[in-house]
Automatic annotation (TrEMBL):
Primary site of residence: membrane
Domain ABC transmembrane type-1 stretches: 62-250
Coiled-coil spans in chain: none
Stored InterPro entries: Bact_Polyamine_Transport, MetI-like, MetI-like_sf
Alphabetical keyword list: Cell inner membrane, Cell membrane, Membrane, Transmembrane, Transmembrane helix, Transport
Presence of keyword Lyase: no
Organism the protein comes from: Mycoplana ramosa (Mycoplana bullata)
Localization annotation: Cell inner membrane; Cell membrane
Entry-linked Gene3D superfamilies: MetI-like
Protein's name in the database: Spermidine/putrescine transport system permease protein PotC
One Pfam family this sequence matches: BPD_transp_1
Similarity section: Belongs to the binding-protein-dependent transport system permease family. CysTW subfamily.
Membrane disposition: Multi-pass membrane protein
Amino acid sequence: MRKVLALYVPAATLLGYLFLFAPLLVLVIYAFNAGRSTVVWEGFSLVWFAEALGDRGLRAGLKVSVIVATASAVLATAIGTSAALAVVKRPFTGKNLFSTLVIAPLVLPEIVLAVGLLVATVWTGVPLGYGTLIAGHVLVSIPFSFLIVRAAASGLDPRLDEAAADLGANGRQIFMRVTLPLLLPAILSAFLLCAVISFDNFVVSTFVSGVGTTPLPIQIYAMLKTGLTPKINALGAMLIAVNVLIILVVMGRYLKTIRKQS
């Protein structure tokens, strides 16, 4: 029985990784396909990378997605961090209710939030565009930043703040010199997660995007009407390469920090 379990764990892990990464590998491989098919290999070519870089629609969608993802991640991280610190460090009436309301978008269907946002924008007369896109993505992302920062803040020793106060630091100095440096890894993680959630968002973007602010996921979905080509594979391969590069840079800095500490 132990031998079976010893084989089952690595086999299940390997199958799990194959299930996750095999589609990405196929996507990257067919980005170099010479033909127009995304399922039949017809030879090696880099033409689709040039096609993807030269497509105005894809470039415009990528620009919108990057702008919205960056702005919404900054706002969602700031709001989520403030809410998390308030819950962890400040006693107030209705704390549990407040926490529940902050994470409520996690349990609500995203399409319900999207329809509600659309109704609210129509009722208030706010034009659809960058503002509505960012607001929608912030609403969806806040629970994630809140939960990440709250978990990190709960693990901080409250005696650190007391010691800083005893040494004459005011509230702002305690936050900037004690709390913020300790929470910085969690805040950065929350920011990156919110950016990814915003960049990949489709449902909310469908309802609250306006003319000239079509994000990349909707742009790709619209291309289904004319049929997919390896152009999309090439774009996906480039995005994967950027993500891998970011991970390598972050991991490199993390390893350097560990080596300095040891």
